[in-house]
Amino acid sequence: MAASVGHRYLRLLHGVAPWRNSLLHCENTALSHFLQSLRKLPFRAFSTNARKVHTAPARTLFLLRPLPFLFATGGGYAGYREYEKYRERELEKLGLEIPPKLAGHWEVALYKSVPTRLLSRAWGRLNQVELPHWLRRPVYSLYIWTFGVNMKEAAVEDLHHYRNLSEFFRRKLKPQARPVCGLHSVISPSDGKILNFGQVKNCEVEQVKGVTYSLESFLGPRTSAEDLPFPPATSCSSFRNQLVTREGNELYHCVIYLAPGDYHCFHSPTDWTVSHRRHFPGSLMSVNPGMARWIKELFCHNERVVLTGDWKHGFFSLTAVGATNVGSIRIYFDRDLHTNSPRYSKGSYNDFSFVTHANKEGIPMRKGEHLGEFNLGSTIVLIFEAPKDFNFKLKAGQKIRFGEALGSL
């Protein structure tokens, strides 16, 4: 009995299977005809009582790809940002002060996800490729025209002399091109644009007007009293107090932005002794004034080299901040420094002391002496203590050249 029931069930399945297959074939054929008819539909518009509605053919939906979509949205966002900048400039012309619009956490995270370190290393390799003799003049002339480089100041004006872009970026100047001011105690260490300057208040430093960063985050925590020229701090006020070593002094700062067309070497801003170097690996985001107004603590995110020591009035520091395509920061007397390494731990830093048993003072630097260089252009930040009657001889936004006065007592 069970066998007969099984045979009947098999016959039933054999009878249903052809019918099921034919039904599926009909459904697939109908769906195919429907999609083909949609692809043939032209772009058209039809009216309703409320508004005019546009419809696009279905084939445009099938042609949509992620890459063009990303380009379109990215271009739209960039255009919106440019419009915002234009509107801000127009309002500034009318004398209206505009509060800065800071980037959100997701915008900063999105920007930091761009492989700027890898791109900067690739740019560095490209800069070292030797150019054919016939190609040097047109390539360098285009750069000179784009960024307004004054080659009459260069020690070697002949463009064929520079074998690659790296040599051209690091060109030396004629000795008389940058006279060092002897009347003022602090001079500009480089060519550039003054982004901000003034007194450090509440352990917050202004990278541009209205946008600050933490002094402790920028210089790093005081972790080892033996290796540093000042002991550890435990709070904001004590951190500042440990930097200010003399009663009656205040902390001052100055931010100088080096554009791609500027002279890329930097020099000692005063007579001082360098006792310690701290290197922060990090991002290489752009540090142009627009970005400095948009991203809070931009300088704390980026790779930087902090040199600290003393001058005649106490604590003095010079920090070279890296940027996109400026992963290479060179300090002439520091051969152990290697920037923009392929791998690093997030939030890490490494210390090096120039004070040894053989040299208990550190590295003495004279005002105007060669100190280091960037591969392209970036930012120099000075943080130092001085008496309360120290005065800056500057205006925010002004252009300045190496050797000109920053301030004096």
TrEMBL record:
The record marks 377-378 as: Cleavage (non-hydrolytic). InterPro entries: PS_Dcarbxylase, PSD-B, PSD_type1_euk. Keywords: Decarboxylase, Lipid biosynthesis, Lipid droplet, Lipid metabolism, Lyase, Membrane, Mitochondrion, Mitochondrion inner membrane, Phospholipid biosynthesis, Phospholipid metabolism, Pyruvate, Transmembrane, Transmembrane helix, Zymogen. GO terms for biological process: phosphatidylethanolamine biosynthetic process; protein autoprocessing. Heterodimer of a large membrane-associated beta subunit and a small pyruvoyl-containing alpha subunit. Is synthesized initially as an inactive proenzyme. Formation of the active enzyme involves a self-maturation process in which the active site pyruvoyl group is generated from an internal serine residue via an autocatalytic post-translational modification. Two non-identical subunits are generated from the proenzyme in this reaction, and the pyruvate is formed at the N-terminus of the alpha chain, which is derived from the carboxyl end of the proenzyme. Residues 1-63 are mitochondrial matrix. One of its GO terms (cellular component) is lipid droplet. Residues 83-409 are mitochondrial intermembrane. Belongs to the phosphatidylserine decarboxylase family. PSD-B subfamily. Eukaryotic type I sub-subfamily. Pathway: Lipid metabolism; Phospholipid metabolism; phosphatidylethanolamine biosynthesis. Signal peptide: none annotated. Its cofactor is pyruvate. One of its GO terms (molecular function) is phosphatidylserine decarboxylase activity. NCBIfam families: PS_decarb. It is found in: Lipid droplet. The lineage of its organism: Eukaryota, Metazoa, Chordata, Craniata, Vertebrata. It catalyses: a 1,2-diacyl-sn-glycero-3-phospho-L-serine + H(+) = a 1,2-diacyl-sn-glycero-3-phosphoethanolamine + CO2. This is Phosphatidylserine decarboxylase proenzyme, mitochondrial. Catalyzes the formation of phosphatidylethanolamine (PtdEtn) from phosphatidylserine (PtdSer). Plays a central role in phospholipid metabolism and in the interorganelle trafficking of phosphatidylserine. May be involved in lipid droplet biogenesis at the endoplasmic reticulum membrane. Pfam families: PS_Dcarbxylase. The modification Pyruvic acid (Ser) is found at residue 378. It is an enzyme of class 4 (lyase). Its EC number is 4.1.1.65.
